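Problem: given the chain below (683 residues), write out its structure.
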Amino acid sequence: MTALPGFEDYERRKERSRRDQAEQSRRGRDIGPLPEVTPEDQELVARCRYDLKLFLETFLGAIFCLKWSEGHLQAIETLEGTILKGGQFALAMPRGNGKTSLVVGAIVWAIVYGHRRFIVAIAATGPKAAEMLDSIKVLIETNELLGRCFPAACYPVRKLEGVNNRAPGQTLNGDRTRITWTGSELCFPTVQDSPSSGVLLHAEGLLGSIRGKQATHPTTGEIYRPDLALLDDPQTDESAKTPGQTSKRLKVINKAVIGLAGPTNKIAVVCPCTVIQPDDLADQILDREKHPEWRGIKTRLLQSMPDAAAMELWQQYREKRKESMREHEDLRDATAFYREHFEQMNAGAAVAWAERFEDDHHDALQYAMDKWAKDEESFFAEYQNDPLEESEEGIESLRKEELLARCDSSKRFEIPDWCETLTAFADVQQDILPYTVVAWGKDLRGRIIDYGAWPAQAQRYYTLRDLTRTLRQFTGERTVEGAIAKGLDQLRESLQDRYGEQLAFFGVDANWSLLKPTVYAACDKDASMWPCHGKFVGAASAPMDLWKKKPRQKSGHFWRSGVEAEHSIRTIDSDGNAWKTIVAKRLTCDLAEGISWFGHKPYEHEMLCDQLAAEYSVEVSGRGRTVHEWKNRPGRDNHLFDCLVGCAIGASFVGVGVTGQAKTPRRRKRKSLRALHDEMLAR
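Solution.
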């Protein structure tokens, strides 16, 4: 077929136009060549390569413009070693001491020198992690000296001019830079002979998709995994107050985060953190006794507080401060008072960073104590990294750190010589049966010789939200009722196999109304099992000893036993508030008189201690009497506390005396519980 006249010329012009447009587009996408680095800047780059302190002073001098404190120098040295050699480093500093800027600067140092190839920024939530990436992006995009000394890392980023859509097509001297510059992922430009070429940064929430991260190198095709994790404040205010959430986050860190590098590589983990309250996640990883694998540094605004006499003057300063702010809207009168009593108010005090104070303060001590005067609680939490214990008027609670010290170095299952009886108690939950076994002596001296859950869990610390095995899985029963019934039978058999006739009492919580028939049926099979009901007897309620006595009832110290009419089964009712108060007192007295437990490593009993401290009491008066009413802290498991209280009630039931009650030591040839039960029914 003959082409139309002029058709071939049109096609040639079209192809030429396409080639011209493609070349123009290519030239538009190509950003080469890179700016040259002067010999002076090259020397500066060489000197900072393995000197983090010099790098921060040189490239972030506008931020770190004051003389370093001893805490800063220690943190910088540890940061440098962690990034270069690996390991785990946690850093807590007073607010405003530049903790975040310090870590961000160290991460940028690791990037531009290629000290680390794949960095994961992890925070309590995904958006918080993205904020950390934003801080790094700003330095790369705007720091003039960084751009001049490290053009391979900075120049291609700056040529995007904030338009991320340009990234896929960007080339340098004809080669793709393969840059990625989004809110949750950064991939530094691929530039020949650049140490930062292809360095990756990902942002993730701690409870997000962390496990199994890996990447393919854009030029070599090599598969590589994260080698540096930045854990930025990995807890929230809510999680810090909940031991279960704290434990869950620690597990994620110890397993998922530290395992990011794979089985054969050593990862570097840097964790700038804030202690929100005692024994939260930050407080634990900063404690070398609990977590020796972490190099924890905790600095304070004040190394030591002023002495008692000085604090009296600082109390006056607080009033002067209020008056000055009301009258002048500044601190002039308070500052004048401080200068007038300078020597007396400095007695006993030691500041950690003498250069840190503001224009309206005389010195660093006034700056620190002014924070104290403004908000004492905030001062100790945010500036001293030593938050005050939560306290409310009229409220009493057991303290975890004191409970942890109640190990008595005995072995698990070991029954002491002074034991008069053994009791056990099981709480009934949908998925597990928490239980405790206690050896009792005179006046409720006790030793917990065994505790845990049925079925046993794979981890030492667990809550109802993170169980590894449930009753239905373990028993093979499809219904909750069937699983609990079978689980109670199995637990009873297990305890009887271990303790035999030494176990005088096995109580089971029967307060869950929906499962009451299930518990009753399980207990009716064996006379050693007693369904128990804890009653709330508050200040406004009539005390138990004034309750109308029913036929065939037996009374004791804040408990009554009898036959429940509807199901014709013997049960025990008890005053929950009274017995929790009795047990709490024995958890705070000397070990020789109170309640202790086996073992010599306190950290192994963190779950037990958290559950024992999960309730608090409020002193309430009414109807001519005062009662400690116990309440559960929201979100806290308290099952082992209930079990311990149930064991104590069982001890009283079988004859162990309580202060103020006649003590009846248990004898080996006493009548069996079945015989006592039959006699009670006969009466």
